[in-house]
Predict the 3D structure of the following.
Amino acid sequence: MNENNLDKLIYKKLSRRELLKSSGRTAAVLAACAVFPSGFIELLNNRKGSLKAVSPDKYSPIPFKPILPSTEDKLILPEGFEYTIIRKWGDNISDDTPYGFNNDYVAYMQIDYHTGGNNSEDGLLIVNHEYPSPLFINKYSDEDFKNGRIKTKEETDRERKFTGINIFRVKKIDGKWEFTEDINFNRSINAMTPIKLSGKAAGAEELKFKDYADGTLANCSGGITPWGTVLSGEENFQDHYSSDNVWEYRWNDTNKDFINEHYGWVVEVDPFDKNSIPKKRTSLGRFRHENVAIGISKRGKAVAYMGDDKVNECVYKFITKNNYDPKDKKKNEDILDEGDLYVADFLNNKWQLLDFEKREVLKNNFRSQADVLVNCDKASKLAGGTECNRPEDIEINPADNSVFISFTNNSGKEDYFGSIVRIVENENDFESLNFEWEVFAKGGADSGFSCPDNLTFDNDGNLWVLCDISTSKINKDRQKPFKNNSLFMIPVSGENKGRAFLFASGPVECELCGGTFTPDGSTMFISVQHPGEGTVDYDNPTSRWPMYGDDIPRPAVVAVTGFKK
Ligand code: FEO
Ligand code: CA
Ligand code: CA
């Protein structure tokens, strides 16, 4: 489209005056806090410079006419694009297996993945289900919780079944995507499935000498490994099983035997082998894992980037001891069990080692490497890790190996809209222990986006950003101008570099998650998570997406089509 029209659309979508009005109190608050160190935001604000490009600067045309922000209870897409619901809560993925609640990460793996194919019309979807809604699943309300009602075991088990990882086949038939029954692949790995504990903390005293965990939970985002497995991040595990639990979805009351230390890990699953046992990779550390992005270093090591999604927590990377073998899938099977874990030091542009044997400071404060891994968030600060503003997704730009990180926000540190940071490792090698970094894009009035979360790259190298303004803040005060949570495309080079173009607006109180393209780039799968999350009255929900009428809101995974191949 004509560039002038495009400009008008972009700058119309956010009225600067509206934003200033809604954040009028900010200046006074900032002045009052000026004497206190503002932490990571200060570092971000001082990073104005741009890194030297490591790939050619190319112009990226915008492949759609951007939409405007919306408060409608709809999934809105640009002209020429449409969505198909693949599965929604209430559907099954096999005869006796229900589709989970609150879908988050979604991966598409073509059915011919292991023979080097690129089938973009037949594959597996691997979908994380982060947490249940006690209200919509069990009609168990916040009031019940406050009044001390204890869920029955049946209620807890129902919630556990709707949490975890779903794997199922999808096919595009006559131009339309469909869920496909397939007993060879379709399965649910949920909060009741036995999961093997693997790696340096497995069997340790901190894990009560156990080799198996009782299920997986809090599965947020994830990643596909170069060897064809899927990684799932266990994020807010404390909401279910911590002793200071204050959430109405706690499961402690009916599962007294839980072991808190069995959660908060990265889980690895082989979606193509239905009989394979999922494993928790404890060598990668225990924290509120958002996702994992893996690159292969120049020497052939697998390097896994990870974020701890909590205010003032850190970014990590793990370098495997053994080399990745592109020719023998089996050899990579347990590659994530041996290696070194590091934490990012953004002050000194260094990766700091988290090895009990090699760091005096860790020896003085912990009992063993297992102790360090279980209590990663404490060890990381002692080892020189930088407290960040809630690291969400981390993705590697396939065009130049630079590493993009969403720092979603940290309102306690005056960071309300978040930012996206780009790291370039020294020598452009994932194994390097030194790096440079820049602020690639900042949320707020100028960019039009707020609270970046999931990231993905398309085949043209554009970055796609899915936003997550929390339900307690959305459409209120300083977040009001951004309206419902949405999805933006941001070119990483060319004249539109760093500018956000609005592609999708989600239904009321939802978060758009996932965002994964088929190999040919023609379809993007998106999870619509927690529509109507602010509902307090089951009979009067704040959203009725996607079925409308008298129905309650239902999280769903959708296929968005209309992209040119
Ligand atoms: Fe589950 Fe960090 O979002
Ligand atoms: Ca997320
Ligand atoms: Ca989130």
User: Anything to note?
Assistant: Confidence is low (pLDDT under 50) at residues 1-36. The longest helix spans residues 3-12.
